[in-house]
Amino acid sequence: MTTIRTRFAPSPTGYLHVGGARTALFNWLYARHTGGRFILRIEDTDQVRSTEQSVQAIFDALQWLEIDWDEGPFYQSQRLPIYNNYIDRLVTEGHAYYCTCTPEQIEAMREKARATGAKPRYDGTCREKGLAPSPDAVVRFKAPLDGGSTVVRDVVKGDIVFANEELDDFVLRRTDGMPTYNFAAVVDDVTMTITTVIRGDDHVMNTPKQILLYQALGAPLPTFAHVPMVLGNDRTRLSKRHGATSVTAYRDMGLLPDAFINFLARLGWSFGDQEFFKRAELIEKFSLERVGKSAGVFDPVKLNALNADHIQAATPLQLVPHVRPFLQAQGWDASDDAYLQGVIHTLQARSKTLQEMALQAHFYYAADLALDAQAAQKFLTATVLEPLKYLKEQLAALPSFNEKELETVFVQLMEKFQLKLGKIAQPVRVALTGTTVSPGIFEIMAVLGKQRVLERLDRAIEYIGKR
RNA sequence: GGUCCCAUCGUCUAACGGUUAGGACACUGGCCUCUCACGCCAGUAACAGGGGUUCGAAUCCCCUUGGGAUCACCA
Fold this sequence. Notes:
Layout: E1 5-8, H1 18-34, E2 37-42, H2 52-65, E3 71-75, H3 80-92, E4 96-99, H4 103-115, E5 138-141, E6 149-154, E7 158-163, E8 171-173, H5 181-191, E9 196-200, H6 207-217, E10 223-227, E11 230-231, H7 247-252, H8 257-266, H9 279-285, E12 296-297, H10 300-313, H11 316-329, H12 337-347, H13 354-360, H14 362-365, H15 373-379, H16 385-397, H17 403-417, H18 421-433, H19 441-448, H20 450-466
Parallel strand pairs: 1-2, 2-3, 9-10, 11-12
Antiparallel strand pairs: 4-5, 5-8, 6-7
Helix pairs in contact: 1-9, 5-6, 8-10, 11-12, 11-13, 12-19, 16-17, 16-20, 17-19, 18-20
The structure holds one RNA strand.
C-alpha cells in the first residue's frame, strides 16, 4: 500500500476564499485520515496577478483553520528549471513543438472559426515545422489526432469520457518562459508523486489535457476527485455579492475554526445523519466515497447555528484565547483568565458568535456602567427601594459569593417583602447590567463578585432616590 | 453555441429497488423559566416533468426541462 499524498495548490491572486478553503480541507482530511502526506504548493506562474500579500493571506487563513502541511510550501516560480527540463524532453520525444504564431494570428484563427461555426482552436500551423527555440516562441503540446477519447476516472463523479478532437494544441510554456497551469500542475504532481488530486469540479475540463500530459511523460495517473462547487444563495458561484467570501472574514466575525471546518465538511460531504463533528472526528470519518456530486449553497445562517453548537460544546478554558481578541477590540482589559472563564461560562449558551459574546460581555467589563434609560425608568422604582437596600445589606454580610448562597439571600428577601422572584429579578438585573436582558442574576453576581455588585446596587439605589 | 457535470423539504443532506421518504438549519406552536438564551416536545415543508425496465423505482435506463462548469501565452 503506497502512502497517500495530496496537495493544495492555490494561486496567490487574492485572499483564500470559501471554496478554496474547502478544497484545502478535503485534501488535508483525506491525508490525515489515511495517514498520508499533505503538501502545499503555491501556483504563482501568473507573474502579473500573483502577489506576496496573497501568499501571506493564504498562510493566515490556513493557520486559522489549523490546517497544517507536511511538505512545502513549494513555489512554482522557483521550479522553472524543472519545467524546462520536461519541455525539452517533450520536444525531443515529439510530444511538443515550438510555435511562433502571434496572439493576433491566434485571435484571427478563432474569429474565422467562429464565423464558420467551427470550434475556436489553434489550427496547428507550426505543428510540423520543426521550429527551433526562439525568444518569441511558445511551446505547444501535440494533441492526438486519432479519433480516440480520454476517460477521466473520477472517484466522486464516476467515469467521464472526452473525445480527443475536442482538444487542441494548448500552450505549455509562454513566451515569457513561464509554464502554463496545466503543464506546471502535471509536472509538479508527477515530481511530487501526488497520488490523489482533490480539487473543485471547475477543473474537470482540464483533466483530459492533463491526462494526456501524464501519458506523454510516461507517468502513472493519480486518482482524481472533483468536488462540487460552493454556490451563493442564488445558486450562482459564490462571490462578493453573496457576502463575505474570504475565510479570514469569518474568523473576524467570531467563528470558531472547528465550527467553520465542520460546516465546510458537511457542505458536500456527509456521514449519515450526523451534523456535529469535532476535528478529530472529521479526520476519523472522512472519506472521498461520501462526497456528494451536486453543488451546494453556502448558508451563513446554518454556519452560525453550527458555530453556536461548537461554542456550547467547548469548555470556557478552551474559548478563552478565542474570545479575548474580541473583548480587546471592544476596548476591555481581558487579561484576567479566571474572570474571563466565568464570563464565558454565563454567555456560552447565548452566543452564536464570539463577536456576539464580546458584545454581551459589556456589563462585565464596563467600569462606569450606564443604565438604559427605559429599563431604569420601568424597573428601578420606589417600590423596590427597600428590597434593594435590604439586599445590599445581606450581600455585604455574605462571606463568600457563590450561586447557592446568593439564592438563599433572595429567598429570604422574597419572604420578607412578599415578592415573587419575577418582581425583584428584573430590577436587580437592570442594576447589575444596565439592561433587561442578560444571563441569570445569580450567575452574574457570582462572576462579578461582591465589590462590583455592591457598587452597582448602590448606584441603583441612588438613582431611585433621585427620581 | 460546443463540450462536460448536476437535479430529494426554502437551505445542507440521509436513502445504496420494498421506509408512514429520515435528520439538521430556518420557520410556527407549546413546555421549562428571574429576562434572554439553552434544553425538551410538537408542527408546516421535498423525490423537477415524461416515458420505459421491474412483482415493486426517489433509487436503474432514455428524453425533456432547469441549473452549473468550461471553452486563454488565468489558475
